[in-house]
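anyone seen this seq b4? input:
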Amino acid sequence: MVRQITYAEAREHLSWTKAVDALQQGHHAARPEIADAFLGPGDKTLLNRSCFIPDFGYGVKAVTVFDGNAARGLDTVQGAMLYFAPDDGQLKAIIESRLVTEIKTASDSVLGALSLARPDSRHLLICGAGRVAASLIDAYTELFPELERISVWNRTHDKAVALAETCIHRDLNVTAVTDLETAARSADIISSATMARAPLILGEWIRPGTHVDLIGAFKADMREADNALLQKGRLFVDSRETTMGHIGELKIPLASGAISERDVLGDFYDLLGGQAGRQEASDITVFKNGGGAHLDLMIARYIAETMR
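predicted toks r here
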């Protein structure tokens, strides 16, 4: 019998630590086969992300992305993840896509930070105040227990205030800030999850030793960091295959010649395979979280096994 797993029933049974472990284990398996398909207009898109990892399984995440849904009181992204067993191809689970995406996205970024950020990081700045930002607060506080404060910045300040207020009863030092530049200049880790089309994090603001985690850009016309930041930092991605060709964060500066493919020093297969990311405490590290079907599959497998 195929298990149908919803966000409501499964979320409380999952942990960020175990999700990050699932990504680490998945990257020690064979390299994946990945295929993405985009159908429909840019503001009403059907996205299918498919993956096969030998001895690990098969997965397909099918979602619609409707930009105008927020005004209708509906989720922008809706869909499901199908997880198939590696040995006999049986459909093992149908998982609500929101659950897979939420756990995958924050775990991806925190694994990047564990690989690249300074262990003595104490100040986290989060740009954005949506669902991803909320999950980043949870994931970073669990995996970086030495954090002393978290600043939240959002173009609509009231949303940052509302997110910070949800953390009061949890005894977390989360503060909504209005001055992005000042917060960025003092942060040890910056994690950005916005819908920006133009850079909002400038290289001139970033002090030595900072780790910058870029999540928001997922289309060809989207970016969160300017060329100066990409040029001055040691640049890494979660997956070369899923970030280089279609995400504006890298596609735009690559096309203009601001950076070259050689400037992307590695991805998770390199970092988790032993390649050094941060070489000096003073290094600025930049990590592009681009996602990918293989990451969805790793997390779907973890969710299915947990809820079995």
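The mean pLDDT is 95. The CA atoms of residues 107 and 291 lie 10 Å apart. kinda curious what u guys think
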